[in-house]
Amino acid sequence: IKLEALEASLTRVYEIPFSSSRKMMVTITKTTGDTSLTHVAKSGEHTAHVKGAPNYIMEKCTSYMAADGSIVDFDEAAKAEFTAKVDELSSQALRVLAIATKDLGAKLPYGEEEETDAKFGKIVNGLTLCGLCASIDPERDGVKDSVLQSRQAGVRVVMITGDYLKTAIAIAKNINILNRHTFTEGNGEATDCGALRPHKEGEYLSNPEIDALTKTTSVFARAKPEDKLEIVKSLQRQGFVCAMTGDGVNDAPALNRADIGVAMGLEGTEVAKGASDMILTDDNFCSIVKAIEKGRTIYAGIQKFVSFIMSVHFAEVLQIFLCIVSSIPVMRQPLQILFLILVTDLPPSIALGFEPGEELTMKRAPRPKTQPIVMMWMWRGIVANGLILTVCIFYTYMISLWAYAGAFTSDDITDPTRTSCAIWEKEKMTPTLKIDCGVWTGCNTSAAAGDALYNAACTTDYLNQWSSVIGTSVAETAEANAAAAITGANGAFYTPHGSPDCAICIEESIRRARTATFISLVWAEGVRAYCSRSFENPIWVATFSNMSMNKAVALAQVTLFIALYLPGLNHVLGLYVDEIHSWGWFLAFQGAVACGVGCELYKYIAKQFIVEAELAGYEEDEDGNVKGSVKTDEVAITVDK
Fold this sequence. Notes:
The protein is rod-shaped and about 145 Å long. By secondary structure, it is α/β, with parallel strands linked by helices. Strand 12, helix 10 and strand 13 form a beta-alpha-beta unit. It is built from 21 helices and 18 strands. It has a seven-stranded mixed beta sheet with strand order 1-2-3-6-7-4-5. The protein has a seven-stranded parallel beta sheet with strand order 9-10-8-18-11-12-13, sandwiched between helices. Helix 18 runs antiparallel to helix 19.
């Protein structure tokens, strides 16, 4: 039969489109030419052509067309024969359509102003069943494995479809929604949506009864749009998180009610897309499973990001706080703090968001909805790692102050009675040049000598008065006598902190300690970033597998050396790397290593207290038999139409 010949002889005059509630489509043609088809009305009269779900159409049929073209009464025996054939075809995962016709005569049985449902009721009755048509819609590649992966991840997949029950069961077996080895009809895993409303077009079962049904059912067949909504509401009442997929206008209420509405991007209507929370651009169930895995990986990355950034910021604040309360020179200047935030802290923390998923990511049960991002054991880790970083860097700073300044507190370092200050020569491991901060000044005890020589502190008995400074030092005695011997002087006085070179020495000693400690902190935070990649695994497990982390830490190190060696910039930042020599680099290195060792030691001790999500516990053997029981807090619902 050629389409051109049909269109020339049969003119379509009306159409009632398919709907998920009627489960059938109707077209009406008027015979306008000669045709070889015997089941259509004669010229000038109308024929209704109906196609749809076999069980719905057979209820409207009173006769059927036999193989020889004759019209036979559609009695119970014939109906049973056709039903058996529908079951046989459906069991092969074939979608079966029934085709029926009705001679409407020259005048249509409805008025043009009548509603569609009224027209449908006057057309679809007393039909003649012409036959059955079976087709196959094979599942996409990867769907079977994705459903199994969902089960292993604790995600229960429920199929809601308008298909015939046996077709739905066969398809569900093919894609692992139903276990072909353990499933038996009537065991509660697959049901016709008619069970939700025992009385046709009547009220739904009570909430407890529907909840008991949806708790175990994985396949709902012959579903209507309102059935999908009731199923979603039932699952939510039981505490499940529901993701609902759909593409039609009638799916919009269920998409909107679900926790996550997923609309089809290719075949979905604009109404469905507007009611959903996300749009699946390739209309592929496998993409949903990939999204679940990616979402879990991102969530774990956020936890690591928060744990890292809060621990280092806690440590940085605590270090400065300790300096202030201990009267120690503050170890960082404002621009150095800004540098740490922008270069050392943020890039590695962002890189943690790109952390690859761990091996058991899709083996764990879903986390509870009420679970906070940062759990109590993470808070312990944040505080502990922050304290470790603080202790290591503060220790490095204290050693640097002692090495370079010879004292710890600001008062001791800048003490006006200080008599000496040590200078580190280049590449020396100890202070070698000792500056005498005290200065002997010649003077005269008489005011008549003039302002140039007179000083109230002047004394002729300077050797005895300043004996605590001179002691047994021959050089100090000689310096005092030389000062008293200048022209017009008859005595001398001592200024403990009078040498300008001493002030420069003290200033340099503090900035050297700051520079060495700053380098140590940048390195330590890089080590801490790698430690943060896992709450359980040691740092040497797949250390460089996160390329984003490698780039972030490398960027921090490159920027550090630019800040240290770029003329102008280094002094603006308060960094004087040319003054710390080998000893300063060694101090910086040992501080970073100590931080890494401390963080890893804490991780080893604390991993026994980590509360990870439980494994879902779903496994299948080689024959597909279930070896474990699944724990679910999420439900992914797919609508198969």
